[in-house]
# Entry
Amino acid sequence: MESVQAIKQRFGIIGNTLALNRSIEKTIRVAPTDISVLVTGESGVGKESIPKIIHQLSHRKHNKYIAVNCGAIPEGTIDSELFGHEKGAFTGATSTRSGYFEVADGGTIFLDEVGELPLTTQVRLLRVLENGEFIKVGSSKVQKTDVRIVAATNVNMFEAIEKEKFREDLYYRLSTVEIELPPLRERLDDIHLLFRKFASDFALKYKMPTVKLTDNAVQLLLKHRWSGNIRQLRNVAEQISVLEQNRTISAEALKSYLPAKGSRHLPAVIKSSKSESDFSSEREILYKVLFDMKSDLNDLKTLTMELMKNGNSKDVEKENEHLIQKIYGDDDAANMADDFTFEEESIVESPEVLSIPEHISPTAVDDKYHFAEEIEEEETLSLHDKELELIKKSLERHNGKRKLAATELGISERTLYRKIKQYDL
# Structure
């Protein structure tokens, strides 16, 4: 069995922190077995190195090693990617395709961001873990595979299980052995060491002198939070190597490459974005706006009923303009006033569209509606007589020829025939 130091040199792992050494030691011990491993840690801590070590130290090292980023594959195609599909299984499936579990038979599959898997895919993955069986999309044939699964995630799995975004049985099946990699802020002795390694690599890559940090700059480097962990430190080292003309970097120069403390950190373990108090205050504001709108609408209804009652339209228009200014402000009042001007004739002609406020007495409401019904009945009778008279005159003028009469009246011959039958002409 290789030592921790030998493995770090072989796979280019920099650092001597106790927590890092323990994680690598656990990786070395579990590698020769076929146990499923779950690698946890924040984004950018180097989780992708662990499955490579496991594969190279196992009896599967001569077979395929496939790394799959579960978060980068669309939900609709991930089953096809992992398990394959038959020809015609869905639109665009023009040929049979082998999935990763079939291709990597006898090897290792690394499922990165496994917490992003859809629930339906999680069920299929659980079956593979339990008995090595899977079914292609669009097929009914059960296939066998001998694949070792190493998964990684930066999601808090217990929170995901509570929110029913991840199956609890799959979590315990994946995490037979769990290897946690510490964040960079807990590896203070390794930060400057990593920076020097990156600076040396970029100096060689870009053919320029290696940058060096002053003592104050080193202290600033150690105090920074490094939310993006090793990935963020590497990016900062590359920027400084390319942009700085002075190869000795002071604290002031380094500060310009580090995000401010108040800025949002890079995604690691995602927390809830809003607290209950935030939602409560938003609800209160929304309720207040709705109540104010209801009050204003009731005032407009009251004005309408007053107009129906005494017909004093000028006074109502003045009150209406005051209400418009109250609701919409002085700037829009002039433009909105015309839209809210009421006329007696329009109200009398269409009384059914008005909503009656609750404070109007039932007697007054009944009287107004009886009055409106009488007017509507008179208008209906008048229209009936006019229509009958026009049809008679047109038929007499054209000597009973329905086609000519319909053309003159502006209606179809079929409609005219129906009217003749209706009026028994």
